[in-house]
Amino acid sequence: MNGSTNGHSMAAETGSAKQLNGGNTTLLPRIQEALELVHSPYSSNESRQQASLFLEEVKANDEAPYHGFTLASDKNQQPVVRHYALSLLEHAIKQKWGEYSQEQAAALREWVLQLSQNIASEDPLYLRNKTAQLWVEIAKRSWGGDWLDMDELLVRLWELPGSVVHKEFVLFVLETLSDEIFNGEDTVAALREGALSKACVEIFTPAIVLAEAFPNRQVGTAVRFGEEGWLVRMGELLSQCLGTDTIQSKEHQTCAVKTLAVYKSVMPWAIPRAISSASCVQHMCTSLAASSVAIQLASVEALHALYCRLHFSDEEFLSIVCPMYTSQTVDLLRKLFEWSVVDPRDIDDEKYLFAKKFSEMMSNLGSFIEQKISAIPEDCDLPNLLNLFLAIAQSQSFVISIPVLVTWTRLLRSQTIGGSPTINPLIAPLLELCSLRLLRYENMPEDSDDPSLIFLLEDIDTVPERHAFLGNYRRYSVQIIELIVRQKQSEAIYHIMSQADQAMQHLYDGQPPFSAASYSKSSLPVLRVDAHFTVVEAALKGYMKWRAAHGSKPQADEQERTAMENNLELWCERLLEMNFEDPIIRKRILQLSVAFSTTALDKKVGFMLKVLEHILMSRPVEHPEHSVYSDAVKELQGDGMYELQRLATKMPDQLLDVYDQLEAKVNEIISSGTLDTKRQTSYQTFLFTIVHRSTKIDDDTRIQKLHGFINPVQQMWQNPEMNQAIGSFNGFCELLGLSRVKDYLVARRVHEIREWGLYQLDAEGEAIQKDLDSRLKALPLRTTKSFLGCSTEKIEKDSPPYKVSCILWREALPVILPNLLSFLSHAHAFHNPANWTGLPPEMRSLVSRILTDRFWQAGISEGSKDDFYARVSGTKSTMEGFASSIRGSVRTVREACYSILWCMSRLDVDFYGFNELPGPLAHALFADAHCLSSHQLIALLNVVRLMVDDCPVELRDHFVPPILATCFAQMDAKCSSEWEKLTHKQVAATDGDNLTEEMKEESILRQLTHTAVMMIGGFLDPARPNPGSSTGKEASTYVPGSNPPISYPTLRKFCLTSATILEPLLLFLTHAIRMRDSRCCGVVLRVFRSIVPDFAPALSTDSPFSSSIREFISADVLKACISSLHEPYFVELQKDLAHLIASILIYYSPATQTPRQILLSLPGIQESAVDKCLDYIMRQGMQSKQQRALVLDLLRDLKGVSISEQGRITKSASAVRKERSKMQQEFMKEQPPARDDRRPSPSLEGVAGMFEDR
Question: Which residues does the annotated region (Disordered) include (predicted)?
């Protein structure tokens, strides 16, 4: 460290080192002048740009490191000059280190050591940190190799007397080294990971621990200095900083925080015995008690990092975890939690941030109790610790509560903990907490003064994330209730039932009386009922799990079961007798009654019949003049039909005993003339399901009765007039009443009407609307869908009901299918503007407006979902409502066709076995699919996925290729064109309503792309087995084979060996790498990584097909990866992109020069660098992390840089508070990520020229 500060004399003896030294004395003043120009507010843009260009060019100068050292050493220079000087050294280390000789590298290192020794507290922090970063950059490249005394040099700096500035410097070096070696994706560190990680463990661990932990260890190159190790040194420093004499000092507080930051980085990988030996837990607990919020937060983050470790041996658990369970520590933790409580209306940012991290740390600490319950010593204060867990879970802030709520689900799963007397006093408070938190907060008004809602709105800005978070919170609350009921049975159930009783009897206390005129589906009484019934449903699930296991004392359990079920029946009967006017409350009562009837009370036939009677006799008062109330009544009626079906599915034998009375009652209800077609069909399918699912009826009688339902449906499809009409597109429009629409739109000059929602329909418009509705109801689609659904849904193949379904529909399928495909083909064709002949040119653009669905999207659409439906309902008699009726008719036909096709596909070879089906089906599905919106295509993709999934393996070759080839080609064209349109739109400024619509379009396009790539991911899943063999063998055109399913290729192999399927599939996936959706791109990259090895050259033969695929991936896919790697948008995926690039190089480079040629065609890439990369990447034993690092290092000058890295901005305390930890992100992972900032696409001219022939 005592080398000369004069760069000339240091390297004077070596010619190679002289190249680093400065001979150009005129350069220094020019650098200073350029820096003044760049930072002066008075400089012109042109002069500033020229100065910046010059400063960049200086970095490439061979003498740059010397000038950097000279300027950085000069304390008289301005900080901005010295910072630039350090960047010259940084550039030399990062970009040219490999080119330097050993002497040059030593000279450069010596300069950095001198700069490090000469730092002073007067230097700005960013200069000190920049100098420490230079140390780290050199360490990553040479420590443990050429540089062996680094630890000694750090210790010498550490021991310098006076200010703590050198200690902070060392702490920065240690933390950064730890982060980049163990936690980061740093390219240089990854390539030397073995040597660096070993050296890190060596210098942090006390020598005595190394000797004990690894007694047979072979000591290699010595890199450590001293016996203590850095864990011990840092503990000693922390004790000094927290001493009574020093804790008030600002510099000692800062030093303590920095020490704890190193702890945080080191705790995940340090040897547990070293953590224990160095008393790290005790030091961190002492820091928790410090009178500084910054130190407390740093301490809790370090403890959190430690307890994120998943596994400790019993010995390690006792020394590292159990100290946190002692009375003294638990008392400290309780006081800290109480201190951290904040007012939701005046949030203390630092305290609140501490409370969040504290909760996560406590959650991890609690998980060890379940894992190691038998190892916990007697002196641990578990009762008070569990009380603290309850207090944290009861926090008014959901974000603070939820981590510990998860811990409670783990604790209660343990029989030992759940059955412990210690837990008994906490059961009632836990049940009360979960009951209160099951209120649907997302439906509460945002101006509510509920503290939990205020916190929630503060913590989570977007509606989708809020919904996902609350959904997760409810899920954990429900799990806790379930687990408590499984453990405590009757005691818990009776408590829950009495709470629900109380709530129902006082539902409208403090609330205005019920009024249909001012009705709201999210009123407080409705929310309360929903919350209490959700608790009861959770208790019911817990009870059923207990009943299934039936305990360890069968006789006593049976007596308890009988008594409980008698009491449950009485409770449910009281519930049915309650009379509420609110349709949603009545719906929830109905749902809960059926749930009990089909589970806990499934032996109580009398109760089931009471529930059935309640559904059949229920007649809610209708107020058609009040639209919101009227919609709720329809919802109640619809749910009544669903619950009827659920009873028929779950309890067909009991219902068969009263079938004649039921049939008479259903016929009476239908003949009353008050039901629409949909509800009539629902009653008929109820009877159908009873006969179909019952085990108490012989097959001949069953088939005969069921044909009585099906034959009329089949006859509807044989209507000659309908058959003739759907023979042409115009006939289809006539049949649905759509032919009158065009003339009406032209006559009313709709294209001149600005606000359709304000234009009231005249008598002719209303008549056309009614005609559309009546014609739609006359079609056989809805009835067919209902009966097919009852025949196929929730039925196992090879079960008796399934075999009955196959026989039942065998004759009907050939009759229905041709006309069904015509309906579907025409419904899609209606979306093609080319088919709207006769419209004046100025009205052509109306077609897309008329056919664009209106839908509500959380977080994007204005207002709530109920507000949206109210707006839609309010515009029914306007031109907007007229357009809605048009697209509604077509949508109903389209989606009914999808449902029928899926149900038919469940019938195995009776559907798939038709020789002529695949071509016409592919045409009907996809001929005009490109005209559908992204929203509509999602439903189409889902039905395609289901049909392919259900296809018998022996018929795949016949059915799948035409369907998937057409599907992938259409998806490629649609997604590619829509993403291109979106990119163009984002370049142009957009505001107001257009922005909302654009956001909806983008969100739906992301969903479509995700649906498509996930479908492909499912098809190509290597772990996906073949389904069982087909069962029915009588299909008219199917000739059965004798091969078992196992002899056929998996769906993955089938797709990868079919040129028909694979070509459009690969094209779509390749284009998807460039689509600006990181979630979808990530899926595609994983799919490609799984595909690449399948086309590596085989040891024996290599087919032309495999070779062509290999060339395509080596060229087009590789180019797409490099292009995305270059783009800042994909910066979060650079690791995945590099992984795929590495896979291509590893598997294909031995067989083809294409990957190498692509890399050589890139600007600034040297042939020697490419060959070196290929050589290293192909070596045996190279880990994937290192292979990625090699690729990223080769392409480092082409990598995009994230917006955040382009200019770092200091964040406010509130902004830091809103940043989410990994655990918090997990609680919101079910929803799509928040929308990216809207900004024009960056210039891609650099990439565009990358692949030009040279």
Answer: 1-23, 1212-1254
Task: Provide the token pair at 8.
Answer: 């000339």
Rounded to 5 degrees, what are φ and ψ at 737?
80, 15
**Euclidean distance between the first and final Cα of the chain, in Å?**
50
Q: How far is CA 980 from CA 749, 755, 976, 990, 1076, in A?
A: 33, 29, 6, 17, 10
Within 10 Å of residue 724's Cβ, how many Cβ atoms? 11
Continuous H helices in 289-423: 293-307, 314-320, 327-340, 349-371, 382-393, 398-413, 415-418
Residue 326, amino acid? T
User: For residue 1114, what is the DSSP state?
Assistant: I
| Structure token pair of residue 742 | 């065009």
Partner residues linked to 760 by β-bridges: 878
User: Distance between CA 1159 and CA 281 in Å, rounded?
Assistant: 50
Residue that the structure tokens 């463990």 belong to = 201
CA angle 386, 389, 393 (to 5 degrees): 140
Rounded (10°) angle between helices 729-736 and 812-829: 90
CA 164, distance to chain mean position in Å, is 45
DSSP-based three-state secondary structure for 96: helix
Residue type, position 845, single letter:
S
DSSP states of 549-574: HT-S-HHHHHHHHHHHHHHHHHHHHH
DSSP letter (8 states) at residue 147: B
DSSP character string of 161-216: SS-SHHHHHHHHHHHHHHIIIII---HHHHHTHHHHHHHHHHHHS-HHHHHHH-TT
Instruction: Report whether 68 contacts 89 (CB < 8 A).
Output: yes
The C-alpha torsion from 1090 through 1094 and 1095 to 1101, rounded to 10°, is 170
Q: Under a CB-based contact definition with an 8 Å cutoff, are residues 55 and 85 in contact?
A: no
Angle at 253 between CA 249 and CA 259, to 5 degrees: 140
Task: Give residues with Cβ within 8 angstroms of 285, minimum separation 6.
Answer: 299, 303, 323, 324, 329, 332
> Which residue in the block uniquely carries the two structure tokens 């950085």?
72
Beta bridge partners of 343: 346
CA neighbor of 612 nearest in space, from 600, 632, 634, 597:
597
Alpha helices in 906-933 (DSSP H): 909-912, 918-926
Q: What is the pLDDT of residues 995-1040, one digit of tens each?
A: 567 777 888 899 999 999 999 999 999 988 887 644 444 444 545 4
3-state SS, residue 108: helix
Q: What's the per-residue H, E or C state across 760-798? A: ECCHHHHHHHHHHHHHHHHCCHHHHHHHHHHHHCCCCCC
pLDDT per residue as tens digits for the range 506-558: 888 888 889 988 998 889 999 999 999 999 999 999 999 988 887 556 677 78
What is the average pLDDT score of the chain?
Answer: 87
By CB neighbour count within 10 A (0-12 exposed, 13-18 middle, 19+ buried), where does 619 fall? exposed
* Tokens 């009040």 -> residue: 626
**What is the helix (H) or strand (E) element at residue 229, kind and residue range?**
none
Measured on CA atoms in the order 624, 630, 631, 633, is the torsion positive or negative?
negative
| 1091: pLDDT strictly greater than 60 | yes
- Backbone dihedral angles phi then psi of residue 989, each to the nearest 5 degrees: -70, 140
Residue 256 and residue 261: Cα distance in Å, rounded? Answer: 9
Strand partners, 147: 143
Please indicate, yes or no, whether the overall pTM of this predicted structure exceeds 0.90: no
Q: Could you write out the three-class secondary structure of 279-302?
A: CHHHHHHHHHCCCCHHHHHHHHHH
d(CA 774, CA 802): 34
Q: What is the rounded CA–CA span in Å between residue 567 and residue 1040? A: 56
CA distances from 362 to 305, 703, 727, 835 (A): 12, 62, 69, 65
Q: Cβ(327)–Cβ(381) under 8 Å?
A: yes
User: Can you tell me the distance from the alpha carbon of 715 to that of 732, in angstroms, rounded to the nearest whole number?
Assistant: 19
